[in-house]
């Protein structure tokens, strides 16, 4: 309910994406750190392995990203797709950015791209009847699996 009810948009002082990099990767669910962007698991996933690619800089929209950030966000997205396919056997992806709170960005103040792995049979009756999404793996376990599958630079 905190996630749904909180309408505050963080600045650099209280932004979870800015502060995630200050903690150990396992604690922050960071899968990989690049030079201008990093990859972490979504704390509120739509599906198992739901990743976010974030620039380190606290910027809110894609048009504020510099050329280096745009290139690395794209490269990390490609690698993440390969890692998710190899480590989790997904069949497809939903990839996108919600730009602005009105467009559905939960944290509109810090740019992030969603990479949601999909499987042929990943929908079940839970979301309809129980208003619950079933995720059969713990976030920490998924983070460890994807981090160990991430290729060395």
TrEMBL record:
InterPro entries: AP-4-A_phosphorylase (IPR052908), FHIT (IPR039383), HIT-like (IPR011146), HIT-like_sf (IPR036265). Residues 16-125 form the HIT domain. The keyword Nucleotide-binding applies. PROSITE patterns: HIT_2. Keywords: Nucleotide-binding. Substrate binds at residues 42, 114. The keyword Signal does not apply. The active site is at 112 (tele-amp-histidine intermediate). Gene3D superfamilies: HIT-like. GO terms for molecular function: catalytic activity; nucleotide binding. This is HIT domain-containing protein. It comes from Leucobacter weissii.
């Amino acid at each position: 309910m905190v996630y749904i009810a909180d309408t505050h948009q963080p600045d650099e002082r209280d932004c979870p994406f800015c502060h995630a990099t200050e903690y150990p990767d396992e604690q922050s669910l960071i899968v990989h750190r690049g030079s201008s962007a990093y990859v972490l698991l979504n704390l509120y996933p739509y599906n198992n392995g739901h990743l976010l690619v974030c620039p380190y800089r606290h910027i809110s929209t894609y048009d504020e990203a510099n050329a280096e950030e745009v290139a690395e966000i794209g490269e990390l997205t490609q690698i993440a797709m390969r890692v998710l396919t190899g480590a989790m056997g997904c069949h497809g992806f939903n990839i996108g950015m919600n730009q602005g709170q009105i467009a559905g960005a939960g944290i509109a103040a810090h740019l992030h791209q969603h990479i949601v792995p999909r499987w042929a049979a990943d929908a079940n009756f839970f979301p309809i009847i129980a208003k619950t999404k079933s995720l059969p793996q713990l976030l920490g376990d998924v983070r460890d699996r994807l981090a160990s599958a991430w290729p060395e630079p």
